[in-house]
Amino acid sequence: MSNWKNVNNWHWVNKNCLKWAQGWFSEQLVGLEAEKDGNKARISKMVDCSGDVDLNQRKGKIITIYDVVLKLNWEGTLADGTEVTGSLNIPEIAHDTDSDDYVFEISINDDNNAKSAIKPVIRKNLTPLLIKKFEAFSAAMIKENCEDVYIESEKMGQATPPRLASPAVAHATTASSTTSTSTSAPAPSATPKKVNTTSLTDKEEFQTSAHELYETLTDAQRASIWTRGHVKLTQQVGSTYEFFNGNVTGEMLELIPDKKIVQTWRLRSWPAGHYSKVTMELEQGSDSVTLKISQTGIPVGEEEIVQTNWSGYYWRAIKGSFGYGANF
């Protein structure tokens, strides 16, 4: 991006995006519909969208911070032709809300036992469509508003590194992206210590194409969005990379566009000079891509920490930033 602003105040740039959010939610949510057993429901109107929606650029990191309340109207038809209307309130849509934590308050106008048959359609079939849109909100916000807060890379300061998971908290935060540990690096050693190692395998599904996911994992500009900071990354075999201000480093060993990524990978806290090997294979499905990952050479005792960091700092961050969440 060639144009940039606020050079002398690059430490903190803020943009209020509430009006944009109101338009985005209305455009994305109104018209969503679901059906089950002949009962149909669709979002007919956005009544209210209020709260805080801000896009920040702080020391080279683009950050979305938002907490909004949504009130929607819906309309539906029962299997016998009865027309039903009502409202759907979502008291909190925030940047740190998990997909399982959204609350949906469903109200039916002139409610009675017969009309209540529409509620399962809304709760089980329509709200998952809303959640999928909520997961895409952050990426859309960055894409459509970042020009006003973007600073060229050579003007950026050093991004604050994330705090990676530690053994004390790894078990309690396996499903969370807010893992923590000390980021201090050990003193360098003249010769790498012999390390007992183990391995792990896993797979994750993304609602996108293999091409888009490959680019998200290997393109520096995209990686800077989901890591929320400076990265060093090129799509060249033999090149080195750095994520999270050097907390994760390695070398690209093999790159097959849209199909395979092989790299060395280490956490800063590992014994000096010790690297694991990560193989990612992308399998394109009809409407999603499955990423299969295998990692060897993990220091014994670190496997749970590593798994937590893949889940939180990689997969969940990518889905939250680009809207590649599960298809409900």
From TrEMBL:
Region of interest called Disordered, as start-end residue ranges on this chain: 158-202
Family: Belongs to the AHA1 family.
Compositional bias segments (type: Low complexity): 165-192
Annotated InterPro entries: Aha1, AHSA1-like_N, ASHA1/2-like_C, START-like_dom_sf
GO terms classed as biological process: protein folding
Domain Activator of Hsp90 ATPase AHSA1-like N-terminal: 14-148
Domain of life: Eukaryota
GO molecular function: ATPase activator activity; protein-folding chaperone binding
Pfam families linked to this entry: Aha1_N, AHSA1
A GO cellular-component term linked to this record: cytosol
Protein name according to UniProt: Activator of Hsp90 ATPase AHSA1-like N-terminal domain-containing protein
